Amino acid sequence: MKKMLLSLKMSPTEIHQLNLGPITAHAFNKDRSQVAICPNNNEVHVYQKSGKGWNLIHALAEHDKLVTSIDWAPESNQLVTCSQDRNAYVWTFDSVTNKWKPTLVLLRINRAATFVRWSPNENKFAVASGARCIAICYFDEENDWWTSKHLKKPIRSTVLSLDWHPNNVLLAAGCADFKARVFSAFVKGVDQKPPPTPWGDKLPFNTICGEFSNDSSGWIHSVSFSPSGDALAFSGHDSQICIVYAGGETQNIRTSSLPYLSLLWITEEKLIAAGHDCVPVLFEKQGQQWRFSKVIDVGKKKVVTEATVFNRFQDWDSKGIREGSKEIELNTIHQNTITSIRPYQGSRHDISNISSSGIDGKLVVWDLK
Amino acid sequence: MSYRSTDVDILDEDQLFQKDLFTFAGGSEVEPDVALKNVQAKGVDVRNFLTRGNTEKALTTAIENPPYGSNTTDAKDQNTKIVMEVLNSIKATDIPSIVKNLTLEQQDVLMKYIYRGMASPELYNSAVLLNWHEKLTEVAGVGCIVRVTTDRRTV
Questions:
Q1: Cβ separation of B151 and A238 shorter than 8 Å?
Q2: What are the entry keywords (chain B) (predicted)?
Q3: Each residue of A102-139: pLDDT tens digit?
Q4: CB contact under 8 A, B146 and A238
Q5: Whole-angstrom distance, CA of residue A39 vs CA of residue A151
Q6: What radius of gyration, in Å, describes the C-alpha atoms of chain A?
Q7: B130: Cβ–Cβ under 8 A, 6 or more apart, which residues?
Q8: Model confidence at A225: pLDDT above 70
Q9: In angstroms, what CA-CA distances link B9 with A24, B1, B6, B23?
Q10: From the candidates A109, A217, A221, which should be mutated to test the interface with B, based on the most B CB atoms within 10 A?
Q11: Which candidate in B13, B22, B103, B146 is best for mutational testing of the A interface (most A CBs within 10 A)?
Q12: Is residue A289 less than 8 Å (CB to CB) from chain B?
């Protein structure tokens, strides 16, 4: 009997070591030919894809302190970066001089900025900060600058993460005061009045459409709206993932692993989480119940080298290992915490590839199919 | 030079207090003496289960409804003593099966008591607790331990 071999079109996992130290943030451009990363300092490095590797083409040095977050708007091709120096810059590419030109954004915050994301229509962006507020920034045509409005109440501590709802008005925020909230970031003059959503109808600026928390109170590291926007998932430092539906239903998953720092919905029923366990994992909704499905990174078996006397002394000399078979490397691709996962390929409702970056300085592109 | 001894935090107009950040049971805390009475009543039940040999029921009763609160220290100490009695009287061979039958919430509370017991090695047997810790971590994973460290509701 002949067996039919189906040719699976699976792209191999791409692993790029872009920095010896941590990668603080990463963002791809629209066609994934360029990536902007922060190599754990006050600069932003832009790389161009060439063959299987990446070449450094620009180093953007305008910030004074660590750049905490980067986002690349796919349509308008603008970069926004925010930093611990309490500033954010919007960068526009000038193809004549082949340089990125920065424009300062007036955030008016007195603490570090922690996270930034463009809105779906790219006419606004939100900056989370340690000043217990979120700055919603939009371009003021009259004065030709980026200005901001603050979402302040009732945030009581540093805002750690943000996610925009697809309607360009609602914004979810995960905070160190153990709460995940959904705000309305409706800016008069910039936004049209949005159609009613399950989260609420009349939504002036700074309305709270929902406030959620875990019972064992951990900092909320990551929030993410589902592809339709009707559900919100958030992960806390207490190793729990909570999925809240706008209708009121809540599901709590107590995981047996270390906390997750980043969440991403890949379909309306599947969720990828990554964090201190150094591997992306999949959570799936089976029937009515959300549960842990599988680990994305299977992990490679270590090749055991011959433990000859020469090898043992060599290891002792170069790595400080006395016994021959002590393992110093994790058998997963990432060798340290994954801090950020972002969609790489696919539509919002069906993401097929994701990219991850972490404290080990690796940028990895995963194929989920 | 007196400015060096000024407490700048009290001058900050937007201070964050513990009560703003986190409240037990949504504000309706149990009074310390009521909590102590509940714990003592629980202790009687637990001792009955132990004398009858029903160690699993004894454990679930002991870790049920812990006396969370900001000033229920007596009740907490008493409850810890009761839980330690139960943990010491369960045979080492029974531990894996008992731990597997606990719900996720019960596992978290049990881990909290294990750490509470290990914090006072002069009062409680750490070797027994270490064994319980090992068996519980096998079933519940490190997430359970993380929840013990982050949860503000201490036992």
A1: yes
A2: Cytoplasm, Cytoskeleton
A3: 999 989 999 999 999 999 999 999 999 999 999 999 99
A4: yes
A5: 30
A6: 22
A7: B118
A8: yes
A9: 31, 18, 9, 22
A10: A217
A11: B146
A12: no
CB burial string B42-69: b at 16+ within 10 A, e below: bbeebeebbeeeebebbbbbbbeebbbb
* C-alpha–C-alpha distance, residues A79 and A36, integer Å: 9
Q: Which residues contact A6 (CB under 8 A, 6 or more apart)?
A: none
φ, ψ dihedrals at A254, nearest 5°: -85, 110
Per-residue confidence (pLDDT) for residue A2, from 0 to 100: 46
Residue A165 in contact with residue A171, Cβ under 8 Å?
yes
For residue B143, give the nearest of A132, A178, A254 by CB distance. Answer: A254
Residue located via tokens 């531990």: B95
Question: Model pTM?
Answer: 0.88
Closest CA–CA distance from residue A262 to any residue of chain B (Å): 16
Say whether B144 and A256 touch across the interface (CB within 8 A). Answer: yes
Alpha carbons A126 and A77: distance in angstroms, whole number: 17
d(Cα A363, Cα A345) in Å, to the nearest integer?
15
* Tokens (6 digits) for A32: 């994934």
Tokens of A3: 């067996």
Residue with tokens 């049990």: B110
8 Å CB contact of A258 and B142? yes
First vs last Cα of chain A: how many Å apart? 28
